[in-house]
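The methods section describes the discrete structure representation at length, but only in general terms. What matters is that the chain and its backbone geometry are given together, residue for residue. For illustration, here is how one protein appears when written out as sequence plus structure tokens:
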Amino acid sequence: MKFFSDIRLLILAIWLGAAVFFIFVAQSAFAVLQDWEMAGAVVNRTLTLLNLGGMGIAVILLLTSIIGSAKVSRFWLWVERFMLLVLGTACAIGQFVIGYWLSSIRTQAGVPIEQLAQDDPLRMQFMMLHGYSVWVLIAGMAAALMGFFIIANRKFGKPDKNADIYDFSNEFKM
């Protein structure tokens, strides 16, 4: 079961790495490309792949959390499942709710968002939704990171009732 847990851990780590990399892709796209509309299209496409991947990974990891779950702590198993549910939900909200609203605003504007006046209601709404999108992605990344540490620190088998849980002397030996 340790090998299977490591595979699950690797899958979650790959998504987390992609999410961190996305932050740099988004910043670089707007810094390098002269046309902000084109930079937005690159970021939108990349974010779509990240969100769809996050939803898929959350579903796969939730389903595979059933395998070998008899030998792990019930509490941490349910915390892991909750974190994976938060990850999948955050990706779904970012993609299908906020992404839809942002696309709708772009369509309503009829011109690139940066061409709208700073006090234009559509631009203000777009910027507000962009902020929500950032926070939803951060929530998904935080949940994935917590799930990562839960999976990484999983102990297999029943814990020894007589063991001192505060004895860290064996943890740091080389």
In short: The mean pLDDT is 90. The chain is about 75% helix and 0% strand. The longest helix spans residues 74-109.
